[in-house]
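Throughout our pipeline, every protein is held as a single compact record rather than as scattered files. The record that follows is passed on verbatim for readers who wish to inspect the format:
___
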Amino acid sequence: MARPLPLPPPGFEDLSMEEKLDYVQSLWDHVSARPDPVPVPDWHKRIVDDRLAAHRADPEAARPWEEVRERLQEKIRSRSRRAAALISGAGTELRESSR
């Protein structure tokens, strides 16, 4: 049985946000360096099996990775533009309301 560890580890709260993110990334890099002992839940395996079966039933429905990546990147760009517009609009509203 695994022994309980303090959460967060001692000194973690004293780190800057960037240092915390670096710490978490380092932990993940350490764990993922040896993926064999990382358990895969049965429900994950079922999802993969279901998706593979769906692909085999209709392979023409699949999209090339480049197309999927471009679609996702466009969604991210669109959301970033909307967020920037909201932020700049909020700044305008704040300036106008302080008059």
